[in-house]
Input
Amino acid sequence: MGEENQTSVAEFIFLGLSQDLQTQILLFVHFLIIYLLTVLGNLLIIILIFMDSRLHTPMYFFLRNLSFTDLCFSTSIVPQVLVHFLVKRKTISFLGCMAQIVVSLLAGCTECALLAVMSYDWYVAVCKPLHYSSIMTQQVCLQLAIGSWASGALVSLMDTTFTFQLPYQGQNIINHYFCELPALLKVASADTYSTEMAIFAMSVDILLAPVCLILVSYWNIISTVIPMQSGEGRLKVFSTCGSHLIVVVFFFGSGMFNYMKPNSKIMNERDKMICVLCSGDSNVEPHNL
Output
């Protein structure tokens, strides 16, 4: 037993969302449909924006980036989940788990930053329409996009480094359906407190900072729109803001629940359902904006 505990694990085993065969088939169909719609929808958005010169505006430039991150996030998780619905032994290699965490964190954190950038773009368009073209120049848009990707890469690299510097020996059964930091930390063979605090600090930066920027942007937008005499103009702005804010609430809410709550050694079903909600929200997100 002692020799086994000193051996680093080569793979992890997932318990998945359900052990019932019929439920797994239903989940397979559900995830497959959503994933295909996600891939086709995001590819269509990216291609249309690229081909139509009328859509070469800051808003659609950021939307194209958002669609690409959504595509990366879904593809890093869903294909493997679909395979696991069809097999009894749901495994992933140690390096495969690391790669899945790196890509999903990169895409997810970049989405957080892009949502904040898009709210700022909308704020400038509504509150400073006469200065919009001089503020949101091509160079500024490119810098904001690069900054979003850079922030996502930094958080992904830091969180992955903190997590995989821990030893993983003996215990390799993860009560989850994909590699995610909170679930993985539960099977670490050492004290995870310092790692959890580091991940919490990074989560504050990539989750709370964008949320604050989004709230400030929309507070200014609402303050500008309410005095408008045009009811049609108010309706258009509020409909766009409403769909964006719904996405923000679900996306950031589920992210905060997963990464900013105290970690326990037990992964319950509620935690997994929240992750499904986060993934599902990410899949429909660009189509609602």
Summary: The two ends are 54 Å apart (CA to CA). The mean pLDDT is 84.
